[in-house]
Design brief:
It is a single chain. By secondary structure, the protein is an alpha/beta fold. The chain has eleven helices and 13 strands. It folds into two domains: 171 residues, Thiolase/Chalcone synthase (Peroxisomal Thiolase, Chain A, domain 1); 147 residues, Peroxisomal Thiolase, Chain A, domain 1, CATH 3.40.47. The strands form four sheets. It has a five-stranded mixed beta sheet, sandwiched between helices. A four-stranded mixed beta sheet has the order 8-13-12-11, sandwiched between helices. A two-stranded antiparallel sheet has the order 2-3. A hairpin with a 3-residue loop joins strand 12 and strand 13. The structure holds oxa(dethia)-CoA. The site of oxa(dethia)-CoA (UT7) has 20 residues, from helix 2, helix 6, helix 8 and strand 12.
Length: 329
Amino acid sequence: MTKIRAAITGVHGYVPDYILTNQELETMVETNDEWIQSRTGIKERRILKGEGKGVSEIGVKAVKGLLEKTNTKPEEIDLVICATVTGDMIFPDTANVVCDKVGIKNAFTFDINAACSGFLFAITTGSQFIATGMYKKVIVIGMDKMSSIIDYKDRATCIIFGDGGGAVLLEPNEEGMGFQDAELKSNGEGRHYLNMKAGGSAYPATAETVAAREHYAYQEGRTVFKHAVRGMSDAVSKIMKRNHLTNENMAWLVPHQANMRIITSVASAADFPMEKVMVNIEKYGNTTAGTLPLCLWEWESQLKKGDNIILTAFGGGFTWGAVYLKWAY
Ligand code: UT7
């Protein structure tokens, strides 16, 4: 019997219109364009503005575009998984909110909270439902509205993050294309270095937690940096060895866009030329679960059927990993 694999059959992304430049950040915190560009590679990031506009706004735009370009009717979708750490509300899940706004009525939905690795975890999960034959059309969304949890008085974090994301459609493929392998890891010891302390059940919102600025993302940058380089390099190397991939038979490396120096370190550890590495960090910064689908969306027209692609990410948790897929169209 032919093996069924989950293949991406369409991708669509969305970034909000408002551009927050390094120059504008210079007016908000003690920083400068030269420092930001040389330490991170970021020139600007997008911000979703507007009262009551949650991350689902991004998901709705991405999913509507995806359904349109793949000629898929909302009622055909079986499952929607949304990777985000900035859901519209703590509950219900944001995948559910997106479905309601888009008119997806016959699906079940859930969110995955794995920070910057969310899209990897979600696409791996969604792929299993296709591979078992249980479902035929699964949407995986990766997106974040980081501006909702960023302290624009903290120069160490506010310069990195932005808002945006994208969605992919997964469908069965019997030609060997699509999802091939994943190397995924979590280590809760990392929670001390990258987190948002308050607003959960440990420290529910109080006037004190707000005054102490504990509803914002906290990051110990240097520690996260080291673990990110090690974690992604290790996952990429394992996936490549296991699947007999080399820098010659690989078409693209799609790394999480957290810091240009992390991206170049990971590419160089895999001996991978930068021409084959997707990089758009200069335009969007770090959109957390949004970076990987945003890259696939931007490079979609350059991808060819059969291309070997590795996606890799590292984020809060810690969580990290790599996913190997063969592009299907
Ligand atoms: O996506 C989830 C995972 N996250 C990541 O992968 C991010 C990993 N970390 C990073 O990308 C980097 O650590 C940062 C970009 C956050 C920080 O860069 P860094 O090179 O690690 O800087 P640092 O924290 O070691 O700080 C170096 C210096 C410090 O000054 P002193 O103590 O040497 O005098 C900071 O106070 O740079 C200073 N600094 C800044 N200066 C100007 C920190 N932020 C800024 C800033 N502008 N925005």
